[in-house]
Design a protein that fits this description.
The protein is an alpha/beta fold. It is built from 13 helices and 13 strands. The protein has helices at about 30-35, 50-70, 85-95, 115-125, 140-150, 170-180, 200-205, 250-265, 270-290, 320-325, 345-350, 355-360, 375-395; strands at about 5, 10-15, 75-80, 105-110, 130, 155, 185-190, 205-210, 220-225, 295, 310-315, 330, 360-365.
């Protein structure tokens, strides 16, 4: 999100948005194409009259756009309300549909809560779930996966890219191991879309989830790829929409917005990824150089999302960091926006082997195609001041003081 001016006439502050893994600014082109479906073209896609037919055509055009962005057939794409609903439909739907073959599911310890908590729910329904460990950079071991698959395994779910530390998993290799073991393979691609190439054929996945608001589309619309022949039990029952898998009057404005956002994201990906990677690297190098006792969480370069920089700072409490940065006009986060109000340390960082206090001293910066190098430089001027101020107040250790620029 480009910097903008907010505040009173007496005091205006430059705002910088480095929390794009939580949500992104809707692209103005996406907003423009959605507008008619809130007013002039407001028909129900299930109606037989011209209003309904126009809405239906718009829905199917959007389905083709999203499907094309992941190299899928339009018939294999189901629209949902979010990435969370997509994860639930994929996991619960497959578990219930294939429970006659077995009741064992495998996932990783660093999945999004939409996957982990669904797996916990399924454990309460009689399923057994194996949570694979990860190494210190967040990678799942292919050998560990192979050893975990049994004749009872029906589904493996490993996210394509982690929402906190940005680790990109070797999905193709993991899916091949899974298929050799006779199970279905699912991946949560919510954070990966438009940041890395997402091709369901090359990845060899059976189920893939995504959410429009992570790539400059609207909130309230997601999608699920279901490979032809894969069975799911629906979670929402009603009029039989979306091949009977997701009954509900269709969100046509959201679908249209998601369609264009996916199309633009793929078309502009090479340029935007290159820009975000340069800014990311400047943030990483500059922060580690400017702040003593600063550490990078996750892989340094290869295997890391182009828009993710995730740090931990010794003797610091993360919420204080976020609040002080916000006072200076910089929006960042301590981790997943879905759990920021929890006092529990990040399950992702704990899975890396970090101690409780290390987990709480974390900061996630996540970029978008609208982020600029100028914004990165402002952050690098600001972060030493923020860390020094918090360390001087920290009960964990006597304050660490060093020369920092004066921030007004």
């Amino acid at each position: 999100m480009p910097s903008s001016q907010i505040g009173s006439q007496e005091e205006e502050i430059e705002r910088i948005y480095f929390d794009n893994s939580a949500t992104t600014q809707v692209d103005s082109r996406v907003l423009e194409v959605m507008q008619p479906y809130f007013s002039r073209e407001y028909g129900n896609a299930s109606s037989l009259h011209s209003f309904g037919r126009y809405a239906y055509d718009a829905m199917e055009a959007a389905r083709s756009q999203v499907a094309d962005s992941i190299n899928a057939a339009p018939r294999d794409l189901i629209f949902t309300s979010s990435g969370t609903e997509s994860d639930n439909l994929a996991l619960q739907g497959a578990a219930l549909a294939y429970s006659g073959r077995g009741k064992h599911i495998i996932t990783s310890a660093i999945e999004h809560h939409a996957v982990l908590r669904t797996c916990q729910f399924l454990e309460g329904q009689g399923f057994r779930v194996t949570y694979l460990p990860v190494d210190e950079e967040g990678f799942v071991s292919e050998e560990t996966l192979k050893e975990s698959i049994t004749s009872e395994t029906i589904l493996v779910s490993i996210m394509l890219a982690n929402n906190e530390i940005g680790t990109i998993q070797p999905i193709r290799e993991l899916s091949e191991i899974t298929k050799d073991g006779g199970a279905l393979f699912m991946t949560d691609a919510v954070q990966a879309m438009t940041k890395v190439p997402v091709d369901v054929e090359k990845l060899n996945v059976d189920l893939l989830t995504m959410s429009a608001h992570k790539f400059h589309g609207p909130k309230g619309i997601g999608a699920l790829f279901v490979r032809k022949g894969v069975k799911l039990r629906p979670l929402i029952h009603g009029g039989g929409h979306e091949r009977g898998l997701r009954s509900s009057t269709e969100n046509i404005p959201g679908m249209v917005g998601m369609g264009l956002a996916a199309e633009l994201g793929v078309a502009e990906m090479e340029e935007s990824v290159s820009r975000m990677r340069r800014i990311r690297d400047r943030l990483i190098e500059g922060t580690l150089a400017a702040v003593p006792r600063a550490h990078l969480n996750g892989p340094r370069d290869a295997g890391r999302l182009c828009n993710n920089a995730h740090f931990r700072f010794d003797f610091i409490e993360g919420e204080g960091m976020v609040l002080l940065l916000d006072m200076k006009g910089i929006a960042a986060s301590t981790g997943s926006a879905c759990s920021t109000k929890s006092l529990e340390p990040s399950h992702v960082l704990k899975a890396l082997g970090l101690r409780h206090e290390q987990c709480h001293g974390s900061l996630r910066l996540s970029l978008s195609k609208f982020s600029t190098m100028e914004e990165a430089e402002i952050f690098l001027e600001t972060i030493p001041y923020v860390i020094d101020k918090l360390r001087q107040m920290s009960p964990l250790k006597e304050g660490v003081t060093y020369d920092v620029p004066t921030i007004h």
